[in-house]
Known about the structure:
ten-stranded mixed beta sheet; single chain; alpha/beta; Rossmann fold
Amino acid sequence: xxxxxxxxxxxxxxxxxxxxxxxxxxxxxxxxxxxxxxxxxxxxxxxxxxxxxxxxxxxxxxxxxxxxxxxxxxxxxxxxxxxxxxxxxxxxxxxxxxxxxxxxxxxxxxxxxxxxxxxxxxxxxxxxxxxxxxxxxxxxxxxxxxxxxxxxxxxxxxxxxxxxxxxxxxxxxxxxxxxxxxxxxxxxxxxxxxxxxxxxxxxxxxxxxxxxxxxxxxxxxxxxxxxxxxxxxxxxxxxxxxxxxxxxxxxxxxxxxxxxxxxxxxxxxxxxxxxxxxxxxxxxxxxxxxxxxxxxxxxxxxxxxxxxxxxxxxxxxxxxxxxxxxx
Length: 327
Protein backbone atom coordinates (compact mmCIF):
# COMPACT_ATOMS: atom_id res chain seq x y z
CA UNK A 1 0.00 0.00 0.00
CA UNK A 2 1.31 3.44 -0.93
CA UNK A 3 1.67 5.51 2.24
CA UNK A 4 3.79 8.28 0.73
CA UNK A 5 0.93 10.80 0.86
CA UNK A 6 -0.14 10.02 4.40
CA UNK A 7 0.50 12.44 7.26
CA UNK A 8 3.10 11.13 9.74
CA UNK A 9 2.31 10.86 13.44
CA UNK A 10 4.90 9.36 15.78
CA UNK A 11 4.21 7.44 18.97
CA UNK A 12 7.14 6.73 21.28
CA UNK A 13 7.04 4.89 24.57
CA UNK A 14 8.16 6.84 27.63
CA UNK A 15 7.76 4.97 30.89
CA UNK A 16 7.99 8.00 33.21
CA UNK A 17 9.04 11.63 33.49
CA UNK A 18 12.71 10.91 34.14
CA UNK A 19 14.50 13.60 32.06
CA UNK A 20 16.68 11.16 30.14
CA UNK A 21 13.67 9.01 29.23
CA UNK A 22 11.67 12.00 28.02
CA UNK A 23 14.60 13.36 25.99
CA UNK A 24 15.18 9.97 24.36
CA UNK A 25 11.50 9.55 23.49
CA UNK A 26 11.33 13.07 22.07
CA UNK A 27 14.39 12.53 19.89
CA UNK A 28 12.91 9.29 18.53
CA UNK A 29 9.55 10.98 17.94
CA UNK A 30 11.06 13.88 15.99
CA UNK A 31 13.47 11.89 13.82
CA UNK A 32 10.80 10.63 11.34
CA UNK A 33 9.50 14.21 11.06
CA UNK A 34 12.90 15.48 9.93
CA UNK A 35 14.33 16.46 13.31
CA UNK A 36 14.00 19.67 15.28
CA UNK A 37 16.43 21.75 13.20
CA UNK A 38 14.54 21.08 9.98
CA UNK A 39 11.20 21.81 11.62
CA UNK A 40 12.38 25.19 12.91
CA UNK A 41 13.98 26.34 9.68
CA UNK A 42 15.36 29.87 9.95
CA UNK A 43 13.24 30.87 12.96
CA UNK A 44 14.90 33.42 15.20
CA UNK A 45 12.40 32.93 18.02
CA UNK A 46 10.60 29.78 19.15
CA UNK A 47 7.55 29.97 21.41
CA UNK A 48 6.67 26.82 23.38
CA UNK A 49 2.90 27.08 23.80
CA UNK A 50 2.24 25.00 26.91
CA UNK A 51 -0.97 24.05 28.68
CA UNK A 52 -0.89 26.27 31.79
CA UNK A 53 -4.52 25.97 32.81
CA UNK A 54 -4.20 27.02 36.46
CA UNK A 55 -1.52 27.04 39.17
CA UNK A 56 -0.82 23.69 40.77
CA UNK A 57 1.91 21.06 41.17
CA UNK A 58 2.95 18.95 38.20
CA UNK A 59 1.56 15.85 39.90
CA UNK A 60 -1.98 17.24 39.55
CA UNK A 61 -1.61 16.61 35.82
CA UNK A 62 -3.58 19.55 34.44
CA UNK A 63 -0.54 21.31 32.93
CA UNK A 64 2.21 20.23 30.55
CA UNK A 65 4.82 18.43 32.64
CA UNK A 66 8.10 20.32 33.22
CA UNK A 67 10.13 17.34 32.00
CA UNK A 68 8.42 17.54 28.62
CA UNK A 69 8.85 21.31 28.42
CA UNK A 70 12.52 20.95 29.33
CA UNK A 71 13.18 18.22 26.76
CA UNK A 72 11.63 20.30 23.96
CA UNK A 73 13.42 23.47 25.06
CA UNK A 74 16.79 21.68 25.13
CA UNK A 75 16.13 20.23 21.69
CA UNK A 76 15.44 23.74 20.33
CA UNK A 77 18.49 25.24 22.03
CA UNK A 78 20.71 22.48 20.61
CA UNK A 79 19.79 23.63 17.09
CA UNK A 80 21.69 26.91 17.41
CA UNK A 81 21.22 30.35 18.83
CA UNK A 82 17.53 31.17 19.05
CA UNK A 83 15.37 33.01 21.52
CA UNK A 84 13.17 30.46 23.27
CA UNK A 85 10.04 31.49 25.18
CA UNK A 86 7.50 29.51 27.21
CA UNK A 87 4.04 31.03 26.89
CA UNK A 88 0.33 30.62 27.59
CA UNK A 89 -2.72 32.57 28.77
CA UNK A 90 -3.85 30.71 31.90
CA UNK A 91 -7.45 30.61 33.03
CA UNK A 92 -6.26 31.74 36.47
CA UNK A 93 -3.11 33.65 37.35
CA UNK A 94 -0.17 34.61 35.17
CA UNK A 95 1.98 32.22 33.17
CA UNK A 96 4.86 32.88 35.57
CA UNK A 97 2.72 32.03 38.56
CA UNK A 98 1.61 28.76 37.00
CA UNK A 99 5.22 27.97 36.06
CA UNK A 100 6.40 28.59 39.62
CA UNK A 101 3.85 26.11 40.95
CA UNK A 102 4.29 23.31 38.40
CA UNK A 103 8.10 23.32 38.15
CA UNK A 104 8.42 24.86 34.68
CA UNK A 105 9.71 28.05 36.29
CA UNK A 106 12.76 26.22 37.56
CA UNK A 107 13.33 24.77 34.08
CA UNK A 108 13.15 28.25 32.59
CA UNK A 109 15.59 29.62 35.17
CA UNK A 110 18.16 26.89 34.53
CA UNK A 111 17.94 27.23 30.75
CA UNK A 112 17.74 31.02 30.66
CA UNK A 113 14.29 31.03 29.03
CA UNK A 114 11.61 33.72 29.35
CA UNK A 115 8.03 33.02 30.39
CA UNK A 116 5.25 35.09 28.85
CA UNK A 117 1.59 35.54 29.53
CA UNK A 118 -0.13 35.87 26.16
CA UNK A 119 -1.71 39.26 26.80
CA UNK A 120 -0.66 41.53 23.93
CA UNK A 121 -3.71 41.49 21.65
CA UNK A 122 -3.72 41.96 17.91
CA UNK A 123 -6.71 41.74 15.60
CA UNK A 124 -6.29 39.28 12.73
CA UNK A 125 -8.90 39.51 9.98
CA UNK A 126 -10.40 36.29 8.66
CA UNK A 127 -11.43 35.75 5.01
CA UNK A 128 -15.01 36.82 4.23
CA UNK A 129 -17.15 34.01 2.85
CA UNK A 130 -15.03 31.34 4.55
CA UNK A 131 -15.01 32.13 8.27
CA UNK A 132 -17.96 32.67 10.58
CA UNK A 133 -16.24 35.58 12.30
CA UNK A 134 -14.69 38.73 10.93
CA UNK A 135 -11.54 38.41 13.00
CA UNK A 136 -9.76 36.80 15.91
CA UNK A 137 -7.86 38.67 18.61
CA UNK A 138 -4.69 36.80 19.57
CA UNK A 139 -1.33 37.63 21.09
CA UNK A 140 0.60 39.52 18.42
CA UNK A 141 3.90 37.82 19.23
CA UNK A 142 2.65 34.45 18.02
CA UNK A 143 2.51 35.66 14.43
CA UNK A 144 5.46 38.00 14.21
CA UNK A 145 7.99 37.32 11.41
CA UNK A 146 10.78 34.92 12.31
CA UNK A 147 8.69 33.14 14.95
CA UNK A 148 7.84 29.43 15.09
CA UNK A 149 5.33 27.92 17.50
CA UNK A 150 5.71 24.51 19.12
CA UNK A 151 2.40 23.39 20.61
CA UNK A 152 2.80 21.36 23.84
CA UNK A 153 -0.60 20.07 25.00
CA UNK A 154 -1.37 17.79 27.91
CA UNK A 155 -3.66 14.85 27.09
CA UNK A 156 -6.85 15.26 29.12
CA UNK A 157 -10.55 14.60 28.89
CA UNK A 158 -12.62 17.77 28.91
CA UNK A 159 -16.10 18.30 30.27
CA UNK A 160 -16.98 21.00 27.75
CA UNK A 161 -15.12 19.82 24.61
CA UNK A 162 -14.83 16.06 25.34
CA UNK A 163 -11.03 16.03 25.07
CA UNK A 164 -8.21 18.56 24.94
CA UNK A 165 -5.24 17.68 22.76
CA UNK A 166 -3.36 19.53 20.01
CA UNK A 167 -6.29 21.38 18.42
CA UNK A 168 -7.81 22.65 21.67
CA UNK A 169 -4.48 23.72 23.21
CA UNK A 170 -4.16 26.74 20.92
CA UNK A 171 -7.16 28.33 22.64
CA UNK A 172 -4.59 29.88 24.98
CA UNK A 173 -3.59 32.17 22.11
CA UNK A 174 -6.78 34.13 22.78
CA UNK A 175 -5.85 36.93 25.12
CA UNK A 176 -7.00 37.01 28.72
CA UNK A 177 -10.67 37.38 29.52
CA UNK A 178 -11.77 37.10 25.92
CA UNK A 179 -11.68 33.31 26.29
CA UNK A 180 -14.86 32.94 28.38
CA UNK A 181 -16.66 35.21 25.93
CA UNK A 182 -15.95 32.75 23.12
CA UNK A 183 -17.61 30.04 25.20
CA UNK A 184 -20.70 32.21 25.37
CA UNK A 185 -20.63 33.41 21.78
CA UNK A 186 -21.16 30.02 20.12
CA UNK A 187 -24.47 29.40 21.94
CA UNK A 188 -23.52 25.94 23.25
CA UNK A 189 -22.51 24.67 19.79
CA UNK A 190 -19.36 22.67 20.53
CA UNK A 191 -18.50 22.00 16.90
CA UNK A 192 -18.83 25.69 16.14
CA UNK A 193 -16.41 26.39 18.99
CA UNK A 194 -14.15 23.82 17.35
CA UNK A 195 -14.30 25.72 14.07
CA UNK A 196 -12.97 28.77 15.88
CA UNK A 197 -10.07 26.62 17.11
CA UNK A 198 -9.40 25.49 13.54
CA UNK A 199 -9.16 29.12 12.44
CA UNK A 200 -6.68 29.74 15.25
CA UNK A 201 -4.49 27.00 13.81
CA UNK A 202 -4.77 28.45 10.31
CA UNK A 203 -3.69 31.86 11.58
CA UNK A 204 -0.88 30.73 13.90
CA UNK A 205 0.37 27.72 11.90
CA UNK A 206 2.41 25.88 14.55
CA UNK A 207 5.52 24.16 13.24
CA UNK A 208 5.17 21.15 15.54
CA UNK A 209 2.82 19.55 18.07
CA UNK A 210 4.15 17.34 20.88
CA UNK A 211 1.58 15.83 23.25
CA UNK A 212 2.48 14.96 26.82
CA UNK A 213 0.68 11.62 27.05
CA UNK A 214 2.98 9.98 29.57
CA UNK A 215 0.22 10.51 32.10
CA UNK A 216 -3.22 11.43 30.74
CA UNK A 217 -6.19 12.76 32.69
CA UNK A 218 -9.40 10.71 32.77
CA UNK A 219 -12.84 10.75 34.42
CA UNK A 220 -12.89 14.53 34.89
CA UNK A 221 -11.15 17.40 33.13
CA UNK A 222 -9.53 19.65 32.21
CA UNK A 223 -8.52 19.54 35.87
CA UNK A 224 -9.39 17.52 38.95
CA UNK A 225 -9.41 14.18 37.15
CA UNK A 226 -7.48 10.95 37.68
CA UNK A 227 -4.07 10.39 36.11
CA UNK A 228 -3.62 7.26 33.98
CA UNK A 229 -0.14 6.14 32.98
CA UNK A 230 -0.26 5.87 29.19
CA UNK A 231 3.50 6.09 28.70
CA UNK A 232 3.68 7.96 25.39
CA UNK A 233 5.19 11.01 23.76
CA UNK A 234 3.34 11.74 20.52
CA UNK A 235 4.32 14.23 17.80
CA UNK A 236 3.23 15.49 14.40
CA UNK A 237 3.20 18.62 12.28
CA UNK A 238 -0.56 18.08 11.79
CA UNK A 239 -2.74 18.81 14.83
CA UNK A 240 -5.81 17.01 13.48
CA UNK A 241 -3.86 13.85 12.61
CA UNK A 242 -2.23 13.81 16.04
CA UNK A 243 -5.57 14.24 17.80
CA UNK A 244 -7.13 11.47 15.71
CA UNK A 245 -4.40 9.03 16.66
CA UNK A 246 -4.44 9.86 20.38
CA UNK A 247 -8.23 9.56 20.52
CA UNK A 248 -7.80 6.07 19.05
CA UNK A 249 -5.06 5.18 21.54
CA UNK A 250 -7.27 6.26 24.46
CA UNK A 251 -10.30 4.41 23.11
CA UNK A 252 -12.37 7.61 22.88
CA UNK A 253 -15.02 8.43 20.28
CA UNK A 254 -13.66 10.59 17.41
CA UNK A 255 -17.19 11.75 16.58
CA UNK A 256 -17.46 13.31 20.03
CA UNK A 257 -14.12 15.10 19.68
CA UNK A 258 -15.89 18.26 18.57
CA UNK A 259 -12.77 20.11 17.45
CA UNK A 260 -11.75 17.14 15.29
CA UNK A 261 -15.21 17.12 13.70
CA UNK A 262 -14.75 20.83 13.00
CA UNK A 263 -11.35 20.18 11.42
CA UNK A 264 -12.98 17.65 9.10
CA UNK A 265 -15.72 20.14 8.17
CA UNK A 266 -13.17 22.82 7.30
CA UNK A 267 -10.66 20.52 5.63
CA UNK A 268 -7.85 21.04 8.13
CA UNK A 269 -5.35 18.21 8.19
CA UNK A 270 -5.85 14.46 8.27
CA UNK A 271 -8.89 13.47 10.31
CA UNK A 272 -9.19 9.79 9.32
CA UNK A 273 -6.81 6.96 10.16
CA UNK A 274 -6.41 5.94 6.51
CA UNK A 275 -4.93 9.40 5.86
CA UNK A 276 -2.29 8.95 8.57
CA UNK A 277 0.96 7.02 8.80
CA UNK A 278 1.60 6.03 12.42
CA UNK A 279 5.31 5.63 13.07
CA UNK A 280 7.17 4.25 16.06
CA UNK A 281 4.70 2.24 18.13
CA UNK A 282 1.58 0.82 16.50
CA UNK A 283 -1.74 2.01 17.88
CA UNK A 284 -2.79 -1.51 18.86
CA UNK A 285 0.44 -1.96 20.83
CA UNK A 286 -0.23 1.03 23.07
CA UNK A 287 -4.03 1.18 23.14
CA UNK A 288 -5.51 1.96 26.58
CA UNK A 289 -8.46 -0.03 27.88
CA UNK A 290 -11.27 1.51 29.87
CA UNK A 291 -10.15 5.13 29.69
CA UNK A 292 -12.90 7.13 31.40
CA UNK A 293 -14.65 10.03 29.71
CA UNK A 294 -15.58 13.18 31.58
CA UNK A 295 -19.19 14.04 32.35
CA UNK A 296 -20.36 16.64 29.85
CA UNK A 297 -20.70 20.15 31.29
CA UNK A 298 -22.18 23.36 29.92
CA UNK A 299 -19.95 25.08 27.36
CA UNK A 300 -21.06 28.50 28.66
CA UNK A 301 -20.36 27.77 32.35
CA UNK A 302 -24.10 27.69 33.20
CA UNK A 303 -24.42 31.44 32.66
CA UNK A 304 -28.15 32.23 32.27
CA UNK A 305 -29.17 32.94 28.69
CA UNK A 306 -30.29 36.57 29.30
CA UNK A 307 -26.90 37.33 30.85
CA UNK A 308 -25.14 35.60 27.94
CA UNK A 309 -27.01 37.86 25.54
CA UNK A 310 -26.01 40.94 27.52
CA UNK A 311 -22.37 39.86 27.57
CA UNK A 312 -22.41 39.43 23.82
CA UNK A 313 -24.08 42.78 23.19
CA UNK A 314 -21.68 44.68 25.43
CA UNK A 315 -18.43 42.78 25.17
CA UNK A 316 -18.41 40.96 21.83
CA UNK A 317 -19.07 43.87 19.50
CA UNK A 318 -15.60 43.35 18.06
CA UNK A 319 -16.46 39.86 16.84
CA UNK A 320 -19.43 40.24 14.45
CA UNK A 321 -20.22 37.15 12.46
CA UNK A 322 -20.46 36.46 8.76
CA UNK A 323 -23.56 34.84 7.38
CA UNK A 324 -21.55 31.93 5.99
CA UNK A 325 -21.97 28.54 7.67
CA UNK A 326 -20.09 25.40 6.62
CA UNK A 327 -22.32 22.70 5.24
